[in-house]
């Protein structure tokens, strides 16, 4: 598990390899990731958007931007956390992801970025 705290918001990430499958005559490697967002600050915050950078073993980059996470824009009160699961497909058995969440502090009404630390995606058979 990797974790990082930005402005009182702790992001923790756990990953799993889900398997391989063929689509459009090409093999794909499926990974899931489970993210916990813990509010260690004194203010309520809301996650508004996300930005992902997804890399495969050949350093190919896919950028993903969107509203909220899994169709939600959670409000997280001080001392509370929000966990969700999602996934991605890579064209290689090894890769990585990193990014950030844009959030709004309800007390100051200011937007701020919360860093999602770089985490590795690797199929067990691809490691020595």
TrEMBL record:
Question: Please, which domain of life does this record's source organism belong to?
Answer: Bacteria
Question: Which SUPFAM superfamilies does the UniProt record give?
Answer: ApaG-like
Q: Which InterPro entries match?
A: ApaG_domain, ApaG_sf
Report domain ApaG positions. 3-128
> Which PANTHER family does the UniProt record give?
F-BOX ONLY PROTEIN 3, POLYMERASE DELTA-INTERACTING PROTEIN 2
The protein's name: Co2+/Mg2+ efflux protein ApaG
Organism name: Flavobacterium fragile
* Upper classification of the organism: Bacteria, Pseudomonadati, Bacteroidota, Flavobacteriia, Flavobacteriales
